[in-house]
Amino acid sequence: MAKPSPLAICYRIRPLDLALHLFEVTLTIASPATEGQVLCLPAWIPGSYMIREFARNIVQIRAESGGKPVRLKKLDKHSWLAQPCAGPLVLTYQVYAWDLSVRTAHLDQTHGFFNGTSVFLQVQGQEARPHVVDILPPEGEAFAAWRVATALPELKAKRYGFGTYVAANYDELIDHPVEMGEFALLRFRAHGVPHEMVITGRVPNLDRARLCADLSKICEAQIALFEPVSKKAPMQRYVFMTLAVGDGYGGLEHRASTALICARADLPVKGQAEMSEGYRGFLGLCSHEYFHTWNIKRIKPAAFAPYMLDRENYTSLLWLFEGFTSYYDDLVLVRTGLIDEAAYLKLIAKTINGVMRGSGRLKQSVADSSFDAWTKYYRQDENATNAVVSYYTKGSLVALLLDLTIRQQTRGRKSLDDVMRALWQRFGRDFYAEGSKAGQGVGEAELESLFDEVTGLHLKPIFDRAVRGTQDLSLESVLSDFGVEMSNKRKESKLALGIRTAREANDCKVASVFEGGVAHQAGLSAGDVLVALDGLRVTASNLDTLLNRYRNGDTIGVHAFRRDELMRFTVVAKPDSAPQFSLEAQAKPLAAARMRSAWLRPDQ
Ligand SMILES: [Zn+2]
Asked: Does CATH place domain 499-572 in 3.40.190.10?
């Protein structure tokens, strides 16, 4: 866009006080609604399904028009009504930005970061107009080297410079987070499209060349997956915004960028060529968020088209949008050769073991887990393992089951890739374009008929069982068709109490109790602080060592504090019931090994 209309919504944002973590935002509305202008801040950020009430971080707000104050009436926790005025109406407010996550905003002497959902008031009724943002640096020579990273197009700014940026509408504005500071900047191309990774936080000896080479493989593979012929990326430019910290992990997807947090130890070091677990995890995270560029930022559930930002948006399809994204994130790593087949099968086994660990999987389907994400998956408590199933991990196994079933039953003619491409063509490609297909989301019923249409199979029984049902998925036989042997290698000799523990100073606290485990049977509860086993002190680090001295069937006297009361429990020692599935590729039969290659290394 060259020139926004004079009726554009105009914001100016500047770091006001770094030590108090305050951004100041000035919003100018050329023609406010004649009956009074309603303004509101979103209650949640797309991609993170929890009501967060961002308006609670607005510290001060005032309005004026033509130099005279305009009265603001608070309508509810995140909306204001500005009294009628001729315009332009100018609002000035401060936003407290001190949440070091990808979801909100953060500001101090080291950098600034914000999501539009945290800082830009929505001008009700004028969301479709162009939105212009003037981004200013903090005052002072000390910040002269600060730059700006965002995938928002520049209107009057140099690339990476402070100045004016523009979005076609409010939805586009809040889908482009902004980073400012002295970040490291890495650039590469993927099928001709400029990609950048900006890294905030000190990372000595970063292997930039390796990171760029690995990321470009991931990005190109995904572009080619959705557009095998044209290799056309869905965006003009893409920015990975990474905050490297001592310890952290997380990401949030956007249509042309992603905000990531990682541990700096996960980033590659010059001169080290091996694939560490941390770096593999970081590439998996990048791959995951990048896959969302198609799967949820353009192919969307009907409930998100458009988003209702003032309340929960209910969909039963997060198993597809998060689960399938989780399936493809690691699959792309093996398909591009960044990890080998054995490493990939280990990752699937880890997911299987994670899903099989808790009894929540037998009570909640992935469709229900998706629907209740707002109050359950995103608000997990000590009982989550016994009540909730993850639509990420089980959803990725549903994708695996469907992919292998489709490949097996069509003798390799079709796969889940074909279904993803059909979803892309029907719903995704033109989501942000003009025309009849723009803005259309995927309905729950039409999704399943599309699977059948693309594959020529009748997959309803699988959806009934795997998506709407709570029985365990039967992966063993379908994996064996691909020459992958699945076996449970539980060590019968290892004893365990059937709890998760958390360190609290030097105490060992029960974080959660697995249903059916020996701790549950003995009456121990989450929150109990273990004191002693048969009179020997339990510390934060010696529980396994103490348990090692017992044998299957032994009786153990356990002392624990519940709040401030000492209690005694009798536990009967039993082997660890945690599943220990492992997957191993078999060289024979040859036909199965060939099917496996077509699945994991289709380009070879
Ligand atoms: Zn995701």
From this structure: no
